[in-house]
Amino acid sequence: MSETPPNTLQYRFDGPEDAPVLILGPSLGTTWHMWDRQVPELLEQWRVFRFDLPGHGGAPAHPAGSVAELTARLLATLDTLGVQRFGYAGCALGGAIGIELALRRPERLTSLALVAASPRFGTADEFRQRGVIVRTNGLDPIARTAPERWFTGGFAAAQPAITEWAVQMVRTTDPGCYIAACEALATFDVRPELGRVGVPTLVLVGSDDRITGPAEARTLVAGIPDARLAVVPGASHLVPVEQPAAVTDLLAHHFSTAWQQTVDTGQTALPGGAPAIPAPHAPPQAVPVAEIAPAAVPAQPAGPPDRYETGLKTRREVLGDAHVDHALAQAGEFSGDFQEFVTRYAWGEIWDRPGLDRRTRSCVTLTALVAGGHLEELAAHTRAALRNGLTPNEIKEVLLQAAVYCGVPAASGAFRVAQQVIREETTPAG
């Protein structure tokens, strides 16, 4: 693999140079090898382009903290290769990139397939909590639980080689890039915009997917004007790995019937060194194929948010949805104006200023709360500090510094509160 600039992605091409380009996008924690079983048949009609997320599969560790940034890097990579129009299929985070393409650059996209995808992936709190766990414990706890999240129990038990491949794939991912990708999913929410997806779309989901299951898939189908649903039986989240033949048939049918025009192709890159997925022991089940028809592309709305909306977004990102929802729900008529004041000025003005990053603001806030003896707020802001990227050791140093200048009794209570919060936030579930 040649050197990958920070604004592009590690990639590989397979297939004839004169064929239309079909892009396959990976999910969080995987590499382009998750699509190995689809490629041979797809090469009969398309030139297949696969890419790795930053820090995945040996790709350079240039973190990208939003789906928009990942999409921009993909487009920059394609621009360097002269690829202007293409079909796109993406799994989970790769599916989010596909939706972003359809919303922001519809002229580049001929048709779309969303696999194990959602317009909003769980809650922001869940993904930021995962980032805290990785920052504190590394990727091993996430890697060890990957098979139970990605595969049905029967498949994981029957395919030990693939199960181990999944664990090692996550374990060898760059932690900083994984955390940044969690942040990208935490902030991704296109539910109000689904009606503007104007390309033929196949929404494909495993029947047993507990992460982005049939309910999320139906939300996509209900929101996208020209979308069809395919539910693959006997599969969980990483459905292209668990039921490869069924997924291949669905993709081949969708893209062959929905394709609008051929696209430009680019040069070939050498494959990376990440391990390929082991061969499964038994063939997968087949499922019915979905059909798609074309659709038009509406115009995009615009408009900057006001300080309250900016503050609410920042407040949720720092303190978490659960904390903010509770505070707003408890406000009532008496303290509603105060909550609006705090959201607009503390979070929309001060916390959003560019002069200090959020890590630094968390250090200042923790110190001020120790000095004032505000232990209840200290608990919330200890959680916020972890979400903003401070490690437990760094929080300890802040509290030690506060002990010198704010007093030992104040710091003693702060250590007690912070230790409990850190234990709760950094202990992996299960």
- Average pLDDT, rounded to a whole number, is 88
Which ranges are low-confidence, i.e. pLDDT below 50, for 5 or more consecutive residues? 260-272, 283-303
Question: What spatial form do the alpha-carbon principal axes imply?
Answer: globular
Number of strands: 7
Count, helices:
17
Could you say which structural class the secondary elements and strand pairing correspond to? alpha/beta
Query: Ends: how far apart?
Result: 38 Å
Topology order in helix (H) and strand (E) letters: EEHEHEHEHHHHHEHEHHHHHHHH
Proportion of residues in helical segments: 40-55%
Cα gyration radius (Å): 23 Å
Percent of residues in beta strands? Answer: 5-15%
Biggest sheet character: 7 strands, mixed
**Looking across the biggest beta sheet, what order are the strands in?**
1-3-2-4-5-6-7
Report on the structure:
The chain has 430 residues and is α/β, with parallel strands linked by helices. Helices cover 51% and strands 9% of the residues. α4 runs antiparallel to α8 (175-186) and α5 (140-150) packs across α7 (160-171). The longest helix has 30 residues, at 321-350. Mean pLDDT is 88; it is low at 260-272 and 283-303.
